[in-house]
């Protein structure tokens, strides 16, 4: 352990010595070290003694290794001398080769330069001749220039005197060709001449600047249009004619004077029309340019020019141009209206006029797209036309087909959204204002005819102005629908819903008069708006549906307004009809064979009541068709009740039959005021006519009547046959111990023929049970007929 420090890798003699001096006596430390050295010597001696044979073998191996190393050293020396001899033989040839290679490279460079100079001199001379040929040789001149550019690439030709003048000429020629091609392109685009445009594009393609030139041309159109838009919306320019020559104070805003607003707006719309013409012209030129690019191919490489433009994933030039124009329109309109309240008010107040200009622009662009191919095919027998015959099918531009991802028309109209929202808001205010005016808070009367005419004129005016655009028509139609709803809500608040609104005893009450006036007012509104819609030319179906839905709500409100009165009249009619059971129909036939009176008392009362109701209440309604639609339903109900209760009269004598038959005839006269014609009542009228002859027929004849089931329900006939039975065969309501009124209510609650027949069957079964109970020997003669009819009715239902 005391020798462990000597095994460490970082053992430091000085540090150990210093530490030993400080920690212990030097003599003791020296003694320890001497003892350790002695012990190590002994160990080494023991190791040498134990392994002396191995150590001797290793010593012999070292001597052999020294011999091998000596031999290797000798051979290395020989190799070095050989390499030196070879080096002397190689260096001189290598130096000569390097020298000759350098000479060859310079010779080749000189030859290449000479060839280039010779070619440049030749092309320069040829270029001079081509330039003298004018526009006919311009494409060849461009090819020569392109080759000259290729010859000048990657090499410095400055300082060569023989071609200095030629290089200057070539530079001037290139500039001249470019300018001439630009003029040709501008002229061709302006005159819509595909030959000139194609020639200019071929020049730029030959010069290698086609893509950059097209980009510059499109950017130029965009810049010009942006400037045109700014000028058209410049408030200073618009107000200049109406202002004096003297300058205003610094910071003074330009605005039209109060008296010159009309002149300002006239100037604005004139500018807008000019702007649309400018946009249309620019679009036409870009369309024409794209059309030529789409069709024109390089005669050498057969590459279509449009592929050169869009090969880097760029969109076609028309899309790029249209996107730039629409974005410029949006931004310029926004900034112009933000800085001028007069512009904003003009665009918002006369938005349909602005929208019409946009729609006209869009139609013109589409029309141009349709006609452009015709212009190509009639452009003459030119070289370009011959080339165009070999091109692929003509691709439609963005104005003719809409992309799923991009709608160019929507992009155009996006700049108008804020003005449309403001216009629709003002339009709704214009529609609401007259209604709020004629329905003052606390008012109790509906609008007068003049006031209603004013509302209708406002609705017609708004729809007529919005007719410039289907989408605007739909939006304004929604506003009109809201207006109609508001009118309905205001009118509903005027309706009287108190008890006197449905009374039918005395003359018209104040509440009933007001209800009549409200219904008449709603009817006039309904008819007038319907007429306005009918007179609209090319009114969108969706807009018409929107207004029609609102008018249906008005019609429903009219129905709700008269329903309490109709219910009251219907209840009174039913109450009068049910009083027939208080009269005696059991009498026999008088000696004269005719009834004593033309009709019963209840029928006289019914006729008088209906005539009075129509005269006192319904005559005041101006909507006759609407009234008859409702009263005809009431007439059908009255006939149904009359036949029902007539079939329940029991007992019924021969004299009673005659009087009841007279009542049937009088019933037609009674309900006549409720309908246009009694025959229009349909099935109810046929039942009334068909039932009357059955009063005098035998039960067997009644059972075989063709009217049975088709016109008159089986349940009614079976009810009637109970009147011909003995008292033991009780009617269904007698068996159930109901009053006739309750039985009538039950029939109303159970309109199903199956339910009614089930109740009748129960009455017949009860009769059979009672006969058996009293041990009767036979049934009433009418019973088998009734059973047969019941079975026939039940089988008809299945």
TrEMBL record:
Its main location: Golgi. GO terms for biological process: intra-Golgi vesicle-mediated transport. It is a peripheral membrane protein. GO terms for cellular component: Golgi membrane; Golgi transport complex. InterPro entries: Cog5, COG5_helical, COG5_N. Signal peptide: none annotated. It is found in: Golgi apparatus membrane. The keyword Lipoprotein does not apply. This is Conserved oligomeric Golgi complex subunit 5. It comes from Tachuris rubrigastra. The gene is Cog5.
């Amino acid at each position: 352990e005391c020798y462990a420090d000597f095994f460490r890798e970082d053992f430091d003699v000085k540090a150990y010595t210093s530490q030993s001096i400080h920690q212990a006596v030097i003599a003791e430390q020296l003694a320890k070290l001497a003892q350790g050295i002695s012990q190590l010597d002994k160990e080494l001696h023991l190791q040498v003694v134990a392994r002396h044979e191995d150590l001797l073998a290793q010593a012999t191996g070292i001597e052999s290794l020294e011999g091998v190393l000596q031999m290797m050293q000798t051979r290395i020396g020989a190799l070095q001398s050989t390499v030196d001899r070879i080096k002397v033989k190689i260096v001189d040839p290598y130096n000569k080769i390097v020298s000759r290679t350098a000479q060859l490279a310079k010779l080749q460079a000189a030859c290449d330069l000479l060839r280039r100079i010779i070619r440049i001199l030749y092309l320069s001379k040829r270029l001079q001749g081509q330039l003298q040929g004018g526009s006919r040789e311009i494409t060849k001149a461009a090819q020569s220039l392109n080759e000259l550019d290729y010859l000048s690439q990657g090499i410095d030709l400055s300082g060569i005197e023989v071609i200095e003048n030629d290089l200057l000429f070539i530079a001037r020629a290139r500039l001249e060709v470019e300018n001439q091609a630009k003029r040709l392109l501008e002229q061709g685009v302006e005159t819509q001449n595909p030959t000139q445009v194609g020639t200019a594009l071929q020049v730029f393609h030959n010069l290698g600047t086609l893509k950059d030139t097209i980009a510059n041309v499109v950017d130029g159109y965009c810049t010009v249009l942006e400037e045109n838009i700014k000028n058209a919306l410049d408030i200073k320019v618009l107000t200049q004619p109406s202002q004096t020559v003297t300058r205003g104070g610094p910071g003074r805003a330009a605005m039209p004077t109060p008296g010159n607003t009309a002149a300002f707006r006239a100037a604005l719309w004139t500018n807008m029309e000019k702007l649309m013409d400018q946009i249309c012209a620019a679009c036409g030129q870009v369309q024409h340019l794209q059309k030529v690019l789409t069709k024109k191919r390089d005669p050498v490489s057969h590459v279509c020019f449009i592929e050169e433009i869009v090969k880097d994933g760029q969109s076609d030039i028309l899309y790029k141009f249209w996107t730039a124009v629409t974005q410029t329109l949006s931004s310029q309109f926004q900034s112009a209206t933000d800085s001028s309240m007069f512009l904003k008010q003009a665009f918002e107040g006369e938005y349909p006029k602005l929208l019409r200009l946009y729609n006209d622009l869009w139609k013109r662009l589409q029309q141009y797209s349709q006609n452009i191919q015709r212009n190509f095919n009639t452009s003459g027998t030119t070289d370009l036309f011959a080339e165009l015959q070999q091109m692929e099918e003509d691709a439609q531009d963005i104005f003719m087909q809409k992309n799923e991802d991009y709608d160019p028309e929507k992009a155009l109209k996006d700049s108008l959204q804020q003005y449309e929202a403001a216009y629709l808001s003002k339009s709704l205010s214009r529609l609401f204002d007259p209604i709020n005016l004629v329905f003052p808070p606390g008012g109790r009367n509906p609008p007068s005819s003049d006031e209603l005419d004013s509302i209708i004129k406002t609705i017609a005016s708004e729809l007529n102005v919005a007719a410039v655009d289907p989408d605007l028509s739909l939006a304004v139609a929604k506003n009109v629908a809201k207006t109609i709803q508001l009118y309905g809500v205001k009118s509903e608040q005027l309706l009287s819903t108190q008890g006197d609104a449905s009374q039918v005893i005395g003359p018209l009450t104040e509440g009933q008069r007001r209800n009549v006036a409200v219904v008449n007012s709603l009817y006039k509104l309904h008819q007038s708006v319907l007429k306005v819609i009918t007179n609209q030319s090319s009114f969108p179906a969706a807009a018409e549906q929107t207004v029609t839905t609102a008018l249906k709500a008005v019609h429903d409100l009219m129905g709700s307004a008269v329903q309490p009165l109709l219910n009251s009249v219907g209840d009174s009619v039913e109450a009068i009809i049910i009083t027939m059971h208080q009269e005696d129909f059991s009498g026999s036939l008088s000696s004269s064979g005719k009834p004593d009176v033309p009709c019963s008392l209840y029928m006289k009362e019914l006729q008088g009541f209906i005539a009075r109701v129509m005269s006192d209440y319904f005559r005041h309604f101006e909507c006759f068709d609407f009234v008859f639609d409702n009263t005809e339903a009431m007439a059908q109900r009255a006939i149904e009740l009359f036949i029902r209760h007539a079939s329940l009269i029991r007992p019924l004598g021969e004299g009673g039959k005659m009087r009841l038959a007279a009542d049937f005839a009088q019933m037609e006269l009674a309900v006549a005021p409720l309908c246009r014609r009694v025959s229009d009542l349909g099935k109810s009228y046929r039942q009334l006519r068909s039932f009357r002859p059955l009063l005098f027929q035998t039960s067997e004849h009644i059972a075989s009547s063709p009217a049975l089931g088709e016109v008159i329900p089986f349940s009614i006939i079976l009810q009637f046959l109970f009147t011909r039975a003995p008292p033991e065969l009780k009617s269904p309501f007698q068996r159930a111990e109901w009053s006739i009124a309750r039985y009538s209510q039950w029939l109303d609650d159970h309109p199903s023929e199956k339910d009614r027949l089930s109740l009748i069957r129960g009455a017949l079964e009860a009769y059979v049970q009672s006969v058996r109970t009293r041990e009767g020997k036979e049934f009433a003669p009418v019973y088998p007929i009734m059973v047969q009819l019941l079975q026939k009715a039940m089988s008809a239902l299945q």
